[in-house]
Amino acid sequence: MSTLKIPVTAEDHAQGAEHAEVTLVEYGDYECPHCGRAYSIVKRVQKHFGKGLRFVFRNFPLSEMHPSAEGAAEAAEFAGVQGKFWEMHDLLFENQERLGDELFVELAEKLGLSTAALTKALEDGTFGARVRADFSGGVRSGVNGTPTFFINGHRHDASFDFETLVSAIGGATKTAKSA
Amino acid sequence: MAQSNVTPIHGAEILAPGTAAPDFTLHVTPDQTLSLSDLRGKPVVLAFYPADWSPVCGDQMALYNEILSEFHKFGAELLGVSVDGPWCHGAFSETRHLHFPLLADFEPKGAVSRQYGAYRSQDGFSERALFVIDKNGTIAWSYCSPIGVNPGADGILQALEDLSKEKTSK
């Protein structure tokens, strides 16, 4: 069974309580349609569990297949250093069919971020190393496509539809509570 | 997982570590072949998989394509093997921009997969079986994944890392 090799740290982009009983880690690609579908499912799952669930998103752009995935990941990281990671993350998924430099600039503007700084960061690949590090860590942990979820460190091989995720997270919550 | 419910007819026992990897020559393209022995001197990752064109993003071959550089760090060569013919592989490879060879275990169908214990004769295609072969042609690690589960690459990378450690400790 594949397990998460890179522990969740303060470097990660996380939502929910730090000491939540369950941590759900997603390795995702902004251009992957399955991740696009998972995006709204995860939102519902977060709502369902409230503070009992911490959600972490890590980059896994399949660049050979998805030409704008890397740029999108870097744009989100750019927003992240300015405290706007989740805003950008959400907007990227909500505008998934329009990914590209034009959209990244438009979204940066919408979030009140410097569009010139974004363009420069994308050109220089400033956040490339961070994205690569996420990717390599994912590979080491057995990420086998996008999206790949880990629930309290264990790869979730079953479907990521709402009911299945809720039941798997519910199971992990019980285990955590009884431990 | 799923495998416990299935009674495999063939392919239950894939070749184990320590076994000499059977040599083979298979078509890479309609007019080009590749032999395992051509790659002697470097580690080889042999990935048998059921079929081209699985209907998902980031299927096993596409995933390996994305992480080729991680395999190359260990000087390893990656070969994909399925029973699809070379024309099918060609079209698949082109669509997915694959940068490693796909071998056609096409005629006689599945012969190489059978040699490695990685053929599902009830289905007529290969298992999702992985082999890491050392530079001397001996199987260093092997793993057969439930047919529906993409095994990822963590096991392969661990095996390659162990091989490289062995090399430096000697």
Care to describe what's here?
The complex is a heterodimer of chains A (179) and B (170). Helices cover 50% and strands 13% of the residues of chain A. Chain A is an alpha+beta fold and 179 residues long. The longest helix of chain A has 17 residues, at 33-49. Chain A is globular, with a radius of gyration of 16 Å. Chain B has 170 residues and is an alpha/beta fold. Chain B has one domain (43-169): Glutaredoxin. Helix content of chain B is 26%, strand content 24%. Chain B starts with 24 loop residues before the first strand and ends with a helix. The chains are: A alpha+beta (179), B alpha/beta (170). The A-B interface holds A 2, 5, 29, 32-34, 62-66, 135-136, 139-146, 155, 157 and B 1, 56-60, 62-63, 65-67, 70, 96-97, 99, 149-155, 157.
Task: Name some characteristics of this structure.
heterodimer; A: 179 residues; alpha+beta; Glutaredoxin; 5-stranded mixed β-sheet; 5 strands; 50% helix; 13% strand; B: 170 residues; alpha/beta; two-stranded antiparallel ribbon; 5 helices; 9 strands; 26% helix; disordered N terminus
Please summarize what this structure is.
By secondary structure, chain A is an alpha+beta fold. Chain A has helices spanning 33-49, 69-81, 85-94, 101-110, 115-124, 128-140, 162-178, and strands at 13-15, 22-28, 53-59, 148-151, 154-156. Chain A has one domain: Glutaredoxin.
